[in-house]
Write a structure and sequence with these properties.
This protein is mainly α. The protein is built from four helices and no strands. The two termini are 24 Å apart.
């Protein structure tokens, strides 16, 4: 995603969104273990929505920054 932002000429907000996205995914990986409870696995799976929102928020903020 960071390479795509670079190729598109993205700014700081876009990079911040990518950094937040990567941090969230790293947190998910750190929480995943073989002995994790099924409800925890479901919670982690559903948090992918939050990961997408973080990425979208960075891109949206960058779009607004380009307008003003």
């Amino acid at each position: 995603a960071a390479f795509a932002v670079f190729l598109a000429g993205g700014g700081w907000f876009a990079y911040a969104g990518v950094a937040a996205y990567a941090t969230h995914l790293a947190w998910q990986i750190a929480q995943t273990r073989e002995d994790v409870a099924p409800i925890t696995a479901l919670r982690l799976f559903r948090s992918n929505r939050d990961a997408g929102l973080l990425l979208f928020a960075g891109f949206f903020a960058q779009s607004l920054a380009f307008l003003f």
